[in-house]
Amino acid sequence: MERVSDVVVVRGEAELFERTAHLFATATEVSCAARDLHTWSVAHPTAPEREQAVRTTSVRKMYLPGVLFDPALAEHLRFMATHGARIRITEREINETILLDRRIAIVAGDHVAGVRSYTVVSSPELVQGIQSLFEAAWAGGTDLESYQARFSELGAREILEQLASGCKDETAARALGVGLRTYRRRVAELMELLGASSRFQAGARAREAGLL
C-alpha cells in the first residue's frame, strides 16, 4: 500500500476489497463508470444479494457499448435495470471510476505484472472533481433501453450482414430496400452506436459479440 494524505493506492482486487468492503456495504449512492463489468467485479454482490442491494441503494452505472456484446454481461445489466439501477451506454472513452455517496472515489489504474492498481480518494476537493467528470459523461450517455431499441430500429443485424459480405453500398441498399443515402446514414449511425471508428472495426466488434 502507498499512502499520500487522502489518496491511497492499493494493489489488486483482494486488497481493494479488504479496504473498501465496509464502504460498499454502507453506501446509499453508488455511481460507476467502466468499460465492462470485469473491472469492478469486487463490487458486484453474488446473485442472491443483487436484488436487495439495488433496492436499498441508488445505483447509476455507465459502460461502453462492448459490454452488451457478452450475453452474460448484458443479462446482468438488464437484471440490475429491472430492479432499479439506472444504466447508460456511452461511446466516449471513460475513466473507470466508482463514487460512493459523493465522498469516496475509487479510480482503476493500469495492470502491472498482471496486477491492477486502484486509487482510493477521500479528499473532498478531488472527489468533487472526479464527480463532475462522471456527471458530464453521464449526461452524454444513452439509457440502456433506448440504446438497445435504437440498435434494433437501425436494422443493425441486417446492415452488419451486408458489411460482412463486402458488397458495394449500392447493392446493399437495394438488398435492404432503402435508398443509398439512407443506407449510408444508417451505417454511420451503427458505427457510432458500436463505438467503432471504421466499418472494419464495426464488423470486428459484431463478430466478437456473435452478431455475425
From TrEMBL:
Q: Which molecular function terms from Gene Ontology are attached? A: DNA binding
Domain HTH luxR-type, which positions? 151-206
Mind listing the UniProt keywords for this protein, alphabetically? DNA-binding
Q: Name one GO biological process term.
A: regulation of DNA-templated transcription
- Gene3D superfamilies linked to this entry: Winged helix-like DNA-binding domain superfamily/Winged helix DNA-binding domain (1.10.10.10)
Superkingdom in the source lineage = Bacteria
The keyword Membrane belongs to this UniProt entry's keyword annotation: no
Q: Does the keyword Membrane apply?
A: no
Q: Which PANTHER family match?
A: HTH-TYPE TRANSCRIPTIONAL REGULATOR TRMBL2 (PTHR34293:SF1)
Q: What is this protein called?
A: DNA-binding response regulator
Question: Organism source for this protein?
Answer: Amycolatopsis eburnea
